[in-house]
Design a protein that fits this description.
Layout (H helix, E strand, L loop, with lengths): L2 E5 L2 E3 L5 E8 L7 E7 L6 E6 L6 E3 L7 E6 L4 E6 L8 E8 L16 E2 L5 E5 L2
Parallel strand pairs: 2-11
Antiparallel strand pairs: 1-3, 3-8, 4-5, 4-9, 5-6, 7-8, 9-10, 9-11
């Protein structure tokens, strides 16, 4: 079965940090861009950021810029999301998914949730004091 397995979530106080992992199962992440998404209760799933293969370039939504960092280790088929200075509004279930090209999409029509594949079950992040 081709999917991701996310882990590393938990309860953290505001200002704290967490590192999420996204391990690919059943396929190799080489040559694919990988994105992190999050979904809060009763809200749409939104993209947090994306990392391209080959260049390793990443991009982020404004709300997490300078706080979140995406990295990847193709040798262990895993992508990471380092989250720093967490805020209550970061509370959500976090997912990773694959884009069927090595570079992260730039055009809005290409960057829709339905264009990503191999979704896992996600990992819950709760930021609360």
């Amino acid at each position: 079965q081709v999917q991701f397995v996310e882990s590393g979530g938990g309860l953290v106080q505001p200002g704290g940090s967490l590192r999420l992992s996204c391990a690919a199962s059943g396929f190799n992440i080489n040559y694919y861009a990988i994105a992190w998404f999050r979904q809060a209760p009763e809200k749409e799933r939104v993209k947090v950021g994306c990392i391209s293969d080959v260049t390793g370039n990443s991009d982020y939504v404004d709300s997490v810029k300078d706080r979140f960092i995406i990295s990847r280790d193709n040798a262990v088929n895993t992508v990471y999301l380092q989250m720093n200075n967490l805020k209550p509004e970061d509370t959500a279930r976090y997912y990773c998914a694959m884009y069927n090209y090595w570079a992260c999409p730039k055009e809005p029509l290409d960057d829709r949730v339905q264009n990503y594949d191999s979704w896992g079950q996600g990992t819950q992040v709760t930021v609360s004091s």
